[in-house]
Amino acid sequence: MFRGIQRRRHRRGRGALLRAGLAVVALILTGAAAASAAEDPFAERRAALTRSIERLAAAVYPVAGRAAMMPQVLAALEETPRHEFVPPKLVSLAYANRPLPIGFGQTISQPFIVAFMTDLLEPEPDDIVLEVGTGSGYQAAVLAPLVRRLCTIEIVEPLGRSAAARLARLGYDNVAVRIGDGYNGWEACGPFDSIDVTAAPGHVPPPLVRQLKPGGRMIIPVGGLFAPQQLVLVEKRADGQVSTRQLMLVRFVPLRRSGR
Ligand code: SAH
Predict the structure, then answer these.
(1) Distance CA 257, CA 260 (A)
(2) Closest among 179, 172, 107 to 141, alpha carbons compared
């Protein structure tokens, strides 16, 4: 009988220990969640935005004849702190799926469009990519982790300088930013596996097509200032033949030309 009580006590003791242990684990987990929320108070909003973009893509992709959005693109979107790329007074809107003004008459693109364009480029870890229109640097930040090197050109000097400083501060060390007219591309950085143009010219710039590798692809909005713009996919085949495909109507700021 004595041994029986002892055994029961022992069992109770183990149960209590287990409960205490679980409580400690729970505390640690809650602590970890609290710590990560404190480190990044936007994590939940960013996750919700990413899920809504995934749903939107699932709804529109079949119509566009595409499969689902690449999981690595969604992961990059979920990891990119958009609130760092919008003006301080608009931080509360950073995770709304809409473009926002960034000064100098320019905008940070809508997250869905950023994800869509990134996905259409079909980025590979070894790719060398050109972006025309750095703006805030947000699109560059989404794309950079998915490729080897990203060269990006901005024509508005203060925007280019602050995007370069922001990207460096946030640790995007495979991105090079240059101030200039992206119509001419960036010969020394190319040739490119893909090119992402985030301002709309009236036609596809021939220097960009030239700087595309065989097998490369370019996404570019094309249209006049007051005419509707089409998002165009330009593909250069292995034999150098170029084909273009209109994907959908979009609205981007116009591509400006230096000295014009
Ligand atoms: N990718 C940006 C979107 C910026 S909007 C982002 O994620 O924030 C388009 C940008 O293209 C603007 O900053 C505009 O100044 C720039 N731009 C317009 N014409 C250009 C040109 N010819 N060369 C390089 N950048 C240009």
Answers:
(1) 6
(2) 172
Cα–Cα distance, 8 to 80 (Å, whole number): 54
> Of all protein residues, whose CA lies closest to atom 13 belonging to ligand 1?
135
Q: How far apart are CA 219 and CA 208, in angstroms?
A: 11
Q: Using CA of residue 234, residue 238, residue 240, residue 243, what is the dihedral sign?
A: negative
Residue-level pLDDT at 40: 85
User: What does the pLDDT look like over 184-215, one tens digit per residue?
Assistant: 999 999 999 999 999 999 999 999 999 999 99
DSSP, res 129: E
Residues 2-13 have pLDDT tens digits of 343 344 444 444
Q: What is the position in ligand 1's atom list of the atom closest to the CA of 131?
A: 1
pLDDT at residue 166, rounded to an integer: 98
User: What is the phi/psi pair of residue 80, to 5°?
Assistant: -95, 120
What does 86-116 look like in DSSP terms, one character per residue? S-GGGGGGTTSSS-EEEETTEEEPPHHHHHH
CA of 117 to the centre of ligand 1 (A): 15
Are the CB atoms for 248 and 230 separated by under 8 Å?
Answer: yes
Q: Kindly report the protein residue whose alpha carbon is nearest to atom 14 of ligand 1.
A: 133
* Active-site annotation holds for 109: yes
Pocket of ligand 1 (CB under 6 A): 106-109, 132-133, 135-136, 138-139, 153-156, 159, 181-183, 198-199, 253, 255-257
Residue 108 CA: nearest ligand 1 atom is: 8
